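Please decode residue identities from the backbone states below.
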């Protein structure tokens, strides 16, 4: 969970809504929120087959990307997180932990 001036963000829906409403006004905040959304998705899908978990993360990334279509930095952050998740899956590492360490979320 992430606490912002707008409140607590604990689900992908809440993160997407915060991004869509422009909650991320400071530099790199949108990117951090988006990566948090992917980590939350990985947590929600933990315990399922890794390829299913990765598919859910890819779908979450597309949803988050659609909230700010012109935000290049957001797209780059999502792409980097997806690459990290894919590598983690292929090497047998935990996807949530891998994504969370990008910005050191707990």
């Amino acid at each position: 969970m992430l606490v912002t001036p707008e409140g607590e963000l604990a689900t992908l829906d809440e993160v997407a809504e915060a991004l869509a409403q422009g909650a991320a006004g400071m530099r790199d905040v949108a990117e951090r929120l988006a990566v948090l959304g992917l980590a939350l998705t990985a947590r929600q899908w933990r315990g399922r087959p890794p390829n299913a978990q990765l598919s859910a993360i890819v779908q979450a990334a597309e949803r988050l990307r659609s909230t700010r279509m012109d935000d290049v930095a957001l797209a780059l952050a999502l792409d980097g997180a997806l690459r990290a998740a894919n590598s983690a899956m292929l090497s047998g590492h935990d996807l949530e932990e891998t994504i969370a360490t990008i910005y050191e979320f707990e």
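Observation: The longest strand covers residues 2-4.
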